[in-house]
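Hi V.,

Quick status before I head out on leave. The structure for the redesign project is tokenized and pasted below; the design run finished overnight.
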């Protein structure tokens, strides 16, 4: 699936990924390829991304790679839309 993580200042990620896990207000949930369409409000936490992609050099200080191999993008909140194998996170 394709994932875009966008903040008011810049695009944090725009890449093909295997999965994405987000901090929804009702709890953390994961999306894989062919996930049903969804719109969700996100709370403070991490957008966890699994995939084989390059992190732009200007973002390496902002994101961390966990022991499970997933990249963790910190967010203060936001909104997620998933449809047609494309997830867009509008993050604060």
């Amino acid at each position: 699936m394709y994932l875009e993580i966008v903040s008011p200042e810049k695009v944090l990620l725009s890449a093909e990924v295997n999965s994405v896990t987000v901090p929804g207000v009702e709890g953390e949930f994961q999306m894989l390829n062919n996930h049903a369409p969804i719109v969700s409000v996100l709370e403070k936490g991490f957008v966890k991304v699994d995939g084989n992609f390059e992190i732009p050099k200007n973002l390496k200080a902002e994101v961390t790679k966990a022991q499970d191999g997933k990249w963790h993008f910190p967010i203060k909140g936001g909104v997620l839309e998933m449809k047609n194998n494309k997830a867009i996170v509008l993050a604060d």
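Above is the designed sequence. The two ends are 22 Å apart (CA to CA).

G. will cover questions while I'm gone.

Best,
W.
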